[in-house]
Amino acid sequence: MAGQTYRIVSAVSGKPFGVAGASTADGAKITESADDNGLDQQWTVVSAGNGYDNLINVNSGKALDDTNGSTSNGTQMQQYTISGTGNSNQQWQITAVGNGFYTITNKTSSDNLDLTNGAFGDGTAIQQWAPSSGDANQQWEFIPVP
User: What is the pTM of this model?
Assistant: First the structure.
């Protein structure tokens, strides 16, 4: 997967996640919204070594980041400037779970990216939550960007 750019789409809603308002600011929140082919909904997978990857937003050049290194369920993810392979807040393990879907697990928290309450609404927060086997809210499809 490393070296390629993807739209990362929820197994539940069928919507990709991106940066709210296509912001390029540190701390901008990660949300789902209808696919608009925007660069803010595209992520390049970059190897961070040891089985982890960085997810770099194409629009901002910033990394998907576990806000303040939180280990709490329900923490909304953000984007933040990355240096090198980043810190563990910016390192993610992408694991196939079958049927073309993956979980995305943060190195700091060991929690999975999660679609809050399995909601379909544009602007729904992408949070972290303790891993739950088979939970579709924690399953994502990586669709290559041509």
Answer: 0.97
How confident is the prediction along the chain (146 residues), in pLDDT tens digits per residue? 999 999 999 999 999 999 999 999 999 999 999 999 999 999 999 999 999 999 999 999 999 999 999 999 999 999 999 999 999 999 999 999 999 999 999 999 999 999 999 999 999 999 999 999 999 999 999 999 98
CATH of the domain at 88: 2.80.10.50
Q: Are strands 5-10 and 43-49 parallel, antiparallel or unpaired?
A: antiparallel
Spatial CB neighbours of 100, under 8 Å, sequence gap ≥ 6? 141
Structural domain range at position 78:
5-144
Domains contained in the chain, number: 1
